[in-house]
Amino acid sequence: MSLPVGESTSERAWEGNPIRFPMGGAGGLPRAARVVRVIPESERVKTLILDLRLPAQPGQFVMVWLPDYEEKPFSLAEADPVGLTVARVGPFSTALHRLEPGDPVWIRGPLGHGFTLEGRRILLVGGGYGVAPLAFLAREALARGMEVTALTAARTATDVLYAERFRALGARVVVATEDGSAGERGRAPEVARRLLEREAYDALYGCGPEGMLEALRTLAAERGLPAQLSYEAYMRCGIGLCGSCEREGRVLCLEGPVLRFAPDGGPPEEGTGFA
Ligand SMILES: Cc1cc2nc3c(=O)[nH]c(=O)nc-3n(C[C@H](O)[C@H](O)[C@H](O)COP(=O)(O)OP(=O)(O)OC[C@H]3O[C@@H](n4cnc5c(N)ncnc54)[C@H](O)[C@@H]3O)c2cc1C
Ligand code: FES
Fold it and tell me: A single GO molecular function, which one (predicted)?
């Protein structure tokens, strides 16, 4: 079984232009939205809920703009209404953390290529705020009757994100912490490896830090599983024009951020990015 997630993604092939854009053309112009709710997730992470609905797939992202700052990409934690889960690490994310209900923010998107559902029993592995698009994916997968195990990994218990949200959706939740203060002790790939040794899955999905994704890519190839992994890259235009996000010959803002790797490993599959 291989199903595109969501029903609303369309592509427009512009005559004479080899680039095909996801729904919304080039993401359109930034549109103004307002924060309607702020959900504290941990000491360093908040989710902003906006008064905006987007036709989007899990794994797609939006460019977020605030006056006096450059635009930055954020995964959609939800699309209806839009939710953004933001870790405070630098100037832009700190500015987002200062927003309160009623404050404006500008959104361009949805952009990029999201996850595709495949198989019946799937394992989702999220490191830090990487859980955000995976919760959106879990909702879609569960709605289609799939069995979902969500592994949410963090350094320590107070950094664990989304465990209750995954449970509320109906997913089985496995928590992993590096210091063993909650759930299983170990980094995400180690705990995922232990799960895969005990249980059978049809596909592996991941979002999180680069090192975690590379370890998951290796793990999936060893276990003969297809893997869909969401990568971060420095993004400026978000629409395939500036080249800043290229990786392994792929323009990640268009062909990713989700790349699919076949069960035998190797480079990301040709055609990834255009479901
Ligand atoms: C496709 C895509 C999706 C993304 N989705 C999200 C999302 O859902 N939530 C989210 O919070 N961010 C997300 N990001 C990252 C986001 O776009 C910004 O890069 C991030 O918010 C940092 O911007 P900043 O200006 O606050 O800090 P910067 O000035 O860019 O960084 C400040 C310092 O923090 C370091 N740093 C940057 N990122 C991290 C990190 N993740 N952990 C630890 N240190 C870091 C930098 O190396 C630098 O030293 C995504 C990026 C991409 C490409
Ligand atoms: S961000 Fe400009 S080409 Fe991808």
Answer: 2 iron, 2 sulfur cluster binding
Q: What is the DSSP letter of 215?
A: H
The conformation of residue 89, written as its DSSP 8-state character, comes to -
pLDDT band of 14, cuts 50, 70, 90: very low
Which pLDDT belongs to residue 3?
41
- Pocket lining: 132 vs ligand 1, CB cutoff 6 Å: yes
* pLDDT given at position 269: 79
Q: Which atom of ligand 1 is nearest to the CA of 233?
A: 53
Q: Among residues 65, 81, 111, which one ends one of the domains?
A: 111
C-alpha 221/C-alpha 264 separation (Å) is 5
Whether 275 shows a pLDDT value over 60: the answer reads no
Tell me: do 166 and 107 sit in the same domain: no
CATH of the domain at 230: 3.40.50.80
Which atom of ligand 1 sits closest to the CA of residue 253? Answer: 1
The answer, yes or no, to whether residue 182 has pLDDT greater than 80, is yes
244 C-alpha to ligand 2 centroid (Å): 5
Q: How far is the CA of 89 from the centre of ligand 1 (A)?
A: 6
Tell me the two tokens of residue 214. 């590379």
Domain at 47, CATH number: 2.40.30.10
Chain segment 74-102, per-residue pLDDT in tens: 999 999 999 999 999 999 999 999 999 99
Domain of 102 in residue numbering reads as 9-111
Q: Are residues 92 and 194 in the same domain?
A: no
Domain count along the chain: 2
Q: Which residues are annotated as a binding site for [2Fe-2S] cluster?
A: 237, 242, 245, 253
The answer to whether 85 touches 39, Cβ cutoff 8 Å, is no
In a domain, residue 56? The reply is yes
Q: How do residues 148-178 score in pLDDT, each as one tens digit? A: 999 999 999 999 999 999 999 999 999 999 9
Separation of alpha carbons 228 and 213, rounded Å: 10
Answer yes or no: do 159 and 254 share one domain: yes
Tokens of residue 210, six digits: 């680069």
Structural tokens at position 28: 């359109």
